[in-house]
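Forwarding the complex inputs:
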Amino acid sequence: MKKKQIISLIIFLAIAYFVFARVTYLYRDLTQNRTNIVDFKDERNLDVAVIGASTVLYGWQPLTAWDKLGITSYGYSQEGIELSIYKYYIKNIMSTNKPDLYIIDLRKLTYMLDELGTVRKYAHYEDVLYPRRLEVISNYFSDREFDRSLFTELVFDIGYYHEQDVLGNPEHWEFIDNRKTSVDINRFKGNSYKREVGYFEKPQSYTTEVGELNDAQLNALTDLLDFCKLNKLNVLFIVCPYPIGHNDYITFNAAKEVVNSYGYPFVNTNDYIDEMGLDFNFDFTDRAHLAVSGAEKYTGFLCDYLEEHYDLQDHRGEKGYEKWEEEANEFRQYAVAIREDYDSNVGHIKQSIEKGDVIRKSEQLSEWLENTNDESYTVFIAVDSENVDWNSNQAILFKALGMEQFWRYSILQMSNSEEITRVLHWEPISLDADMGDDLFVIRQHVEVSTDAVNKIVYRGEEYTTDKFAILMAVNKYTNEMVDCIEVEYGDEMLISHINK
Amino acid sequence: MGITSFYYLFLVAIGAIIYYILPKKIRWIQLLLLSIVFYCAAAKPITFLYILGSAITAYIATNVGMKKDGADGKNKIRIALMAIAIVVNLLVWFVIKADSILVDAFGVFRKVIHVLPEFNGWEFVGALGMGYYTLQVVGYILDCAWGNIEPQKNFFKLLLFVGFFPQLTTGPISRYSQLSTLFEEHPLDYKNITFGAQRILWGFFKKLVIAERAGIIVNAIWADLATYNGFYHWIVLLMYPIQMYTDFSGCTDIVLGTAEIFGIVMPENFNNPFFSRDSKEFWKRWHITLGVWAQDYVLYPVLKSSFMVKFGKFAKKKFGKNTGKFLATSLGMLCLWLVMGIWHGATKFIVGVSLWYWIVLMIGDLISPISTKLLKKFSVNTDNFSWHLFQSMRTYVIYAVGAAFFRAENFKQALSLLGSLITMFIGNIKEVNPWIFFDDSILNTGVSYVDINILIFGVFALFVVGILREKYGYARNYIAKQGIVLRWIIWISLFILVLIKGKYGGGYNAADFIYQGF
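Prediction (whole assembly, two chains):
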């Protein structure tokens, strides 16, 4: 083979690889999980890197931290990412930055689920031939049976995405180089927000009891700690605030002991809910994530902690940091728009709570049904329709609920924002109902039956009647029962409220 | 490991690098080891024993007793061993691959002879490529017996001939003389590497872009002929040959391209079959190596047998020279087609495929003189594109009818489909549904308009490449003469097309090659 031919072959293969990589990047999906990772590659001079899963994504506001302390930070996170990947995150960060401090959120320790999804998120967004990417994929199989097709799909993710119709989407073309080409590269430094607001009660689970870490948890934690120690990193381990239960609390207390034994500090911010001023009614989107108002408080608290315990430089006004000031300005404006969204959602919740009084004062069945026919409520109905005169005017109400002439009914009626779902059955219904929006779902156990008596059981409380029907309205935001009525069959369909 | 998988490409790449690093004298050993590695990854490793057994029988048959040859070169022991080796190989193949024929035969006989036991076949796991290497081994033994070649004295070289990895998927069926390049010393040649890689890429295009897409439509319609009625049956009749051709020839391209990378030239299996003007020409362009094997090892020996010579003489005497010759040839061809049908391993192939094509070829021979006279009488110009197009389309439809038997689950289903093609126009007018070509009905089969456009483009590309092959030997030869920029644009574009429009990847299982099971 001649030298010219060899060179020609090498150039051709290089072009082929270049094209292959670009096509791969073009077809990959577009989510914050991707942009957080690829957009980081242009970040420099970071003081603090905050690492974790979605709790960091929605909880840590780097530009709020800039406003408060003048520190540069980045929330290096992907949704659902497991602890096993954190050290690779750190390696990624170390390749371009030397932060004074790493903050690692260990929230995922009590929720270790999807190792494959984690690896896929890492592998599918890094550059194709990035060595660390191949290392992560190989390590995934180190203690598992080797699956050839899965390995191929992880390495060559073009096979996973190429069926998508992306060529007509300009946004996909922006990422053809696996870097966003527009000037505004990740304005908010790895931060995002959710629109929803979840209504919770403040947990009463604070405890100093120390539980036990299982093998998987201990291995994941010590592996990460060993890595930090080996690389002589300055690390603060934290747990973000959330509606924490007893089991999680004692697990984190156990984790604290392990972390401290390595000489690292550990702060479970759930110990400082009052100091943060967190309102569990409105500062969370769901059981895991902070709403924008909660994120502000949480970030503020952490900044105070950092100011007290660490000597981080304030770069406000310094040359070379002008871009941070610009981006912080943008974020402030953006935060106003987010706040409006948030306030509107909070308004809905408050309104639904207030409307409960109106519902409880309803005197007619038609009035009650009209008041509860609202996306804020879920209605359960048990009705013995054996004696209903289906030709009468009263029957119209029941026909409106989708009922037809039948012996008896148990009806589970759940209202989402746009749909009403009914389960109509002549047998008792007992199930764990998913209540609420698609994105904010709480599972409650409900029983509806029409045996000897009409009965609804909700949250362990039983409501029965020997009258014609029993109906219960539940606030889907708060999951509280708003009202329960029994209905006497007749021309007037009289109702009585039987709340406990 | 399928040959459209990343692992196969990786194996070939690593194998080729090691091949060319090693000293030339021992490269064939590396090929043998590579073949064993491929086999263990692609099939149950224990079944490699079948290939080993075949090679052992062939080696013993062709080497034992050589020194005791008589004056005329023949040795009864050697001949007996060869005969036994052939029978053993064919018997093993038949038991494992073609037992369904026995099952059907038992079923038929049991209707008459009720005491016959029920027979549901044997459940043996066969070797990969058993149908292909068995014929190769039989051909090798016969060539040795007839003195066409010298027996291979090195057992491992013989094993390599039998088990050379690319051919185990879908052939081709090579003669020993054609694969002697396996043991030659090949220098690293730029053209071999590039042409081989180009051919592999073209094979991927045919299989993943065209065949798999056509298969969506074909499989959907065949799965529910009652729902997909009327003109759907015409669609599936005419589309299946495209799927079959791109699937089979695509695999062949990958196989031949792989061999070419190692400097080994394997015989071609396809040569623009849909350009054929008649069925005779078609079968010289389609699955060429099977046809040549059947011709050389079945037809010619049958025609030269004493029985056929006598029969030929009798027929000529009785019916005249031309008719007599026709009858003798027809009988020989019937044997050839029956063997080809049996090789495919099921009764429906014998009845539907073999008999159909045999009848078509014989009728073609019979009416050829008459049609020539008629064309002359009516002054039909047969030397133009439109006549060639008519002939090619006619040949295509004839092939498609036989292919219906190939695709159908059974003989009855094939007949049902073929019957419906006619009956829809006679007395079943409700089935005539031409609107399916204009509304979105075809999308119900699971394809999108993008898929249909890609199919059309793919068929057009096949046509263009076919034209280039007719003119330049191979389209690659033509492209190789173009400037570097155009060449690279063509190959990179083809690569991108396979990458983004190939049917592969997560959540998708590429179908096995249609001819992989033989």
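Chain A touches chain B through 23 residues (CB under 8 Å).
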